[in-house]
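Hey,

The postdoc asked me to send both predictions to you directly instead of through the lab channel. I've kept everything plain text so nothing gets mangled by the mail client. Protein one:
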Amino acid sequence: MSNHKVSYQCLTPQSFLERSVAAFHQKDAIVYRQQRWTYAEFATRVNQLANALKTGGYKKAIA
């Protein structure tokens, strides 16, 4: 066994996206045919959709 400590942080889809934006802000996140979205643009759209769902009355599911 190794004596090295491991840094562990649970990655949720949101935290993964936030880390990706911080690391790859202007790099392509999605390429579909002739369209391209950077990580920053993708994060903006994801957050807009999440806010629209919250405003529309959708709530976090309890598992």
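Protein two:
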Amino acid sequence: MVGLDETIIGTLRGSIYAKADKMEQTVAIEFIESKVEEKIIDKEIGDELSRLVRKYCTYR
């Protein structure tokens, strides 16, 4: 998320965490994919974030 404003990074991070924690990982991944489609984050970062969500949600 290089090049993004710190407030946007914090908002994205909080939203991803909340969706993965309170809802389910598929909702968090869909949120990440929507941000890639909106060109807020690039595909590489989106893929990495999705990978991290999958990795850490399975340990619950």
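Summary for protein two, as requested: Residues 6-57 form one domain.

Thanks,
C.
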